[in-house]
């Protein structure tokens, strides 16, 4: 039996400089998964710099599995083309939320900074901050297994027992 320790609310903000997978364009969407659970954004037609601003929610088991992100080009008459992927370790976000439980923070206060490295796929340093009474991580991910492209996300931790 899988024990759920909480939920991560993922705001898929935008993609930047995504690859062309059709003749001159792509119709991108993002698929997210944690273990068996999946969610995806809507398709944005003819756009290599799409703005989704969509919030998706996935359950996080205990112990936490990574958040897997896949970008696809939607096709009608053939299988969707891969436009890159990445994997995000949720343990830093969860530990920051647990350590800050019961503490008083000022709105917008930075709780932790994660330096971008080739191992974490961050395009720039990621910040975990206190916003709207929640712990939120802002990050921009370099897509892997593809020539170029980035996805900007915001992760918000929601424990099962606040």
From TrEMBL:
Lineage top rank: taxon: Eukaryota
Pfam families assigned to the protein according to its UniProt record, in alphabetical order: C2 (PF00168)
SUPFAM superfamilies per the UniProt record, alphabetical: C2 domain (Calcium/lipid-binding domain, CaLB)
Domain C2 stretches: 1-103
Signal peptide start-end: none
GO molecular function: GTPase activator activity; phospholipid binding
Annotated Gene3D superfamilies: C2 domain (2.60.40.150)
InterPro entries: ARF_GAP_AGD11/12/13, C2_dom, C2_domain_sf
PANTHER family the UniProt entry points to: ADP-RIBOSYLATION FACTOR GTPASE-ACTIVATING PROTEIN AGD12
Protein name in UniProt: C2 domain-containing protein
